């Protein structure tokens, strides 16, 4: 049988990481990434890129923990390598603060991040409106550099990149044996997934190089996430809102909320406003399907619906994609050897 042809549709964090894992696991495959938009124009470019998971209600916690752990381990290794600054990956320490003690004092990811502990009274003095807090060190991706770095690695492995809007996955069946669907919120239209909905997020990217520690208000709505080149101030979570236009009153509200946590941000400069649609679902769709039409077949692997946690779990889900692509290749080999009998 000829080397299988695989297309990954989507060039956000889910698509590029899936393509890397497939390229590493099956170097003999002919692999291409097709996407309507590449960096810096994807939802993934808007994200803060912090590794602090959000719980997806219908994905078992042990699975979410495994995806987070695999992602953390992978990025931690990059952060300790000479590639760290080009890849935009770095460790960042800080605080998650609450107005009262949360129900869940030990989140499921507390033993994956580094040095998780309850904040001391003297540390809490920095946040006079808050009564309880957690201190830890985690990883942050500067998103556009990380996406660009993954693209560069894919090209070095001979993976081709095509700018192309796919109207229907079936249109790819003459060119590819296996299609990996990593289209984020685009899957709502592409495969008609009614369970997938946008959660609109507006953030500010500011220049404030003196801010070195992250701060997240416990509800996850207000946050200050310092990166290598800028600080992301957030945010909003607007369910079922599709607008990508920034709202000036929201910009002011975010800035005021963040300044109330870190007053020195009043001196921040070069405010850029970005909006993105989190591809949200009760669970990530990570699934293999066989599509057939008039005797022709297309093997499809879905990998979308990462919601608020695409960066926090992308490497774990990408490894699962590679396992599912392996099952597709085995099925292709099986049907090809049966056809020869
Ligand atoms: P996308 O990045 O949207 O990529 C989808 C790709 O598919 C694009 O290339 C697109 O062009 C392509 N595509 C879509 N439809 C088609 C089609 N029909 N044909 C061809 N190509 C198509 N997550 C974290 O873990 N940590 C954070 O700190 C964080 N902060 C966030 C802050 C904000 C404001 C927002 C909006 C999100 C944040 N997220 C965060 C969530 C994260 O951004 C998403 O989970 C992640 O970007 C989803 O990645 P994706 O690759 O699935 O989708």
From TrEMBL:
One of its GO terms (cellular component) is peroxisomal matrix. It is found in: Peroxisome matrix. FAD binds at residues 43-44, 166, 183. Keywords: FAD, Flavoprotein, Oxidoreductase, Peroxisome, Signal. It catalyses: D-glutamate + O2 + H2O = 2-oxoglutarate + H2O2 + NH4(+); D-aspartate + O2 + H2O = oxaloacetate + H2O2 + NH4(+). It comes from Crypturellus soui. GO terms for biological process: D-amino acid catabolic process; L-aspartate catabolic process. Belongs to the DAMOX/DASOX family. It holds the Pfam family DAO. Its cofactor is FAD. Residues 5-324 form the FAD dependent oxidoreductase domain. Residues 1-18 form the signal peptide. It is an enzyme of class 1 (oxidoreductase). Its EC number is 1.4.3.1. Selectively catalyzes the oxidative deamination of acidic amino acids. Suppresses the level of D-aspartate in the brain, an amino acid that can act as an agonist for glutamate receptors. Protects the organism from the toxicity of D-amino acids. May also function in the intestine. Its main location: other. One of its GO terms (molecular function) is FAD binding. This is D-aspartate oxidase. PROSITE patterns: DAO (PS00677). D-dopa binds at residues 223, 278.
């Amino acid at each position: 049988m000829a080397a299988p042809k695989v297309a990954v549709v989507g060039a956000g964090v889910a698509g590029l990481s899936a393509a890397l894992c497939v390229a590493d696991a099956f170097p003999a495959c002919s692999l291409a990434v097709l996407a309507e938009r590449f960096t810096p124009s994807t939802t993934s470019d808007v994200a803060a890129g912090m590794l602090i998971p959000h719980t997806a209600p219908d994905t078992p916690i042990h699975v979410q923990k495994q995806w987070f752990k695999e992602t953390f381990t992978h990025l931690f290794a990059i952060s300790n390598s000479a590639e760290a600054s080009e890849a935009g990956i770095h460790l960042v320490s800080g605080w998650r603060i609450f107005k009262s003690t949360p129900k869940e004092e030990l989140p499921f990811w507390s033993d994956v991040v580094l040095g998780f502990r309850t904040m001391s009274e003297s540390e809490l003095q920095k946040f006079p409106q808050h009564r309880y807090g957690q201190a830890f060190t985690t990883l942050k991706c500067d998103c556009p550099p990380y996406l660009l770095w993954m693209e560069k690695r894919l090209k070095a492995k001979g993976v081709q990149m095509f700018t192309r809007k796919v109207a229907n996955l079936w249109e790819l069946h003459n060119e590819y044996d296996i299609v990996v669907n990593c289209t984020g919120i685009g899957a709502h239209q592409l495969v008609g997934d009614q369970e997938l909905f946008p959660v609109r997020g507006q953030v500010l990217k500011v220049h404030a190089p003196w801010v070195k520690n992250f701060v997240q208000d416990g509800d996850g709505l207000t946050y200050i996430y310092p990166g290598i080149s800028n600080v992301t101030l957030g945010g909003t979570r607007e369910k079922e809102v599709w607008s990508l236009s920034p709202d000036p009153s929201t910009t002011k509200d975010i800035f005021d909320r963040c300044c109330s946590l870190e007053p020195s941000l009043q001196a921040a400069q070069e405010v850029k406003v970005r909006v993105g649609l989190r591809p949200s679902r009760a669970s990530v769709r990570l699934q293999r399907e066989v599509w057939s039409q008039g005797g022709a077949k297309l093997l499809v692997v879905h990998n979308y619906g990462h919601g608020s946690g695409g960066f926090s779990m992308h490497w774990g889900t990408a490894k699962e994609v590679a396992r599912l692509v392996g099952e597709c290749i085995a099925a292709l080999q099986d049907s090809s050897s049966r056809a020869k009998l």
